[in-house]
Write a structure and sequence with these properties.
By secondary structure, the chain is mainly alpha-helical. Helices cover 77% and strands 0% of the residues. Helix 1 packs parallel to helix 9, helix 6 packs antiparallel against helix 8 and helix 13 runs antiparallel to helix 14.
C-alpha cells in the first residue's frame, strides 16, 4: 500500500476517535457541572478538561477569562483548535475523501454524512439548547463509523491501518483522562472527604469511558480509585483499557509489518508486556502519575515510529 494512502486511513481513524473522546469528556463535565459545587470547583473541572488535551495555554490566549460557555465553544466548534470536535470531524472527512477509492461506499458515506450533519446541528444551535444530545450524536456517529468499517471493509492493510489509528488514539486518551483526573483527586483529597461527592467524581470518570456498568459487573462493590485505575489500565476485557488498546495495536502492527518495522513491533510489544504483567499495587507504589506520563511519552514515540515506518515521513 502507498504510504500516502495508509497515512490518510490512519488519520481518518484517529480524528474520528478523537472527536468521540472529546465528546465523552465534555458530556461528563457538563453533567458534573450541574451538581452543587463552588465556582472554584466548577472552574477546576473545566480547567482539567482543557488540560487533558493540553489546551490551557491556547484557550487562555484566545479567551483570557474562563467560562463554561467559552470552553464548550472552543472544544466543539472552534476551527482554530485542531482538537475541537468540528476540526476533528472535518479532518476525518477530508482524509476519507482523499482515499475514497480505498473505502467501501458505506464507510465513505458515513464519514461524509457525519460532516454534513455536523454543520446543520451546529448552525441549528443544538449545542446551546442541549449539549448532551449533541455529544450523544457525536458518539453515535463514531460508533457507526467503526461498525460500518468492521462490517464492510475487506480485512486487508487498509482495514488494519484504520484499526491501528483507532487504538493508538484511544490508548492516548484513556491515559490522559486517568492522569489528569487522578492528579486532581489527589489535590482535592485534603480539602473535602465527602463520600458522596467522591462517589460521583469517580463515577463520572468511569462514565467518560463507558465503564460504569462494567465496573459494577466486574467488582460488585463501591467505587474506589485503585479499582478504577486497574479497570482502565490492566483489564484486557475492558474495551478502552490501556492493555486492551495495546493488544489491538500489537496485533495490527503484525498484520502490516514490513522490512523496517521490526523495531517498532518490539517497542509496542514491550509496552504491551509491561501492562500484561504489572499489578495495580506495583504501579501505585511507584507513582501513577509517573507511570502514565511515561506511558504517554511512549505512545507518542510509538506514533512517530509508525509514521517513519509506514506513513508519510515526518517533516524535518
Amino acid at each position: 500500500m502507498l504510504s500516502r494512502t495508509a497515512d490518510h486511513l490512519y488519520w481518518m481513524a484517529r480524528y474520528t476517535e478523537r472527536a468521540e473522546n472529546t465528546a465523552r469528556m465534555l458530556d461528563v463535565n457538563v453533567q458534573t457541572a450541574m451538581m452543587p459545587q463552588s465556582a472554584e470547583a466548577a472552574e477546576k473541572g473545566w480547567r482539567a478538561m482543557l488540560g487533558i488535551s493540553e489546551l490551557n495555554e491556547a484557550f487562555d490566549e484566545k479567551y483570557g477569562l474562563l467560562t463554561a460557555r467559552d470552553v464548550l465553544d472552543f472544544m466543539v466548534r472552534d476551527p482554530q483548535n485542531p482538537s475541537s470536535i468540528a476540526s476533528c470531524l472535518t479532518q476525518a472527512r477530508e482524509n476519507a475523501r482523499a482515499v475514497r477509492g480505498t473505502l467501501t461506499t458505506e464507510v465513505w458515506e458515513t464519514q461524509n454524512t457525519t460532516w454534513l450533519d455536523m454543520q446543520s446541528r451546529l448552525s441549528g444551535r443544538l449545542l446551546e439548547r442541549d449539549p448532551s444530545q449533541f455529544f450523544e450524536w457525536v458518539k453515535y456517529r463514531s460508533h457507526l463509523s467503526r461498525g460500518v468499517t468492521i462490517g464492510t471493509m475487506l480485512k486487508d492493510e487498509a482495514f488494519y491501518f484504520i484499526r491501528l489509528g483507532t487504538f493508538l488514539e484511544r490508548a492516548d486518551n484513556t491515559a490522559r483522562i486517568l492522569d489528569v483526573k487522578f492528579h486532581s483527586a489527589t489535590e482535592d483529597a485534603s480539602e473535602d472527604e465527602d463520600i458522596e461527592i467522591d462517589f460521583y467524581y469517580w463515577a463520572a470518570i468511569l462514565r467518560s469511558v463507558s465503564a460504569f456498568e462494567i465496573y459494577r459487573k466486574v467488582y460488585r462493590d463501591v467505587i474506589s480509585p485503585e479499582r478504577v485505575a486497574e479497570l482502565l489500565m490492566l483489564r484486557p476485557d475492558m474495551p478502552r483499557s490501556l492493555l486492551a488498546c495495546m493488544e489491538e495495536v500489537v496485533a495490527n502492527l503484525k498484520n502490516i509489518r514490513n522490512d523496517v518495522s521490526s523495531d517498532t513491533e518490539r517497542f509496542a510489544g514491550k509496552l504491551h508486556a509491561e501492562l500484561t504483567f504489572s499489578t495495580i499495587d506495583e504501579i501505585l507504589a511507584g507513582g501513577l502519575h509517573d507511570y502514565l506520563t511515561q506511558f504517554l511519552e511512549r505512545i507518542y514515540e510509538l506514533g512517530n515510529r509508525v509514521s517513519r515506518n509506514f506513513l508519510v515521513p515526518l517533516a524535518a
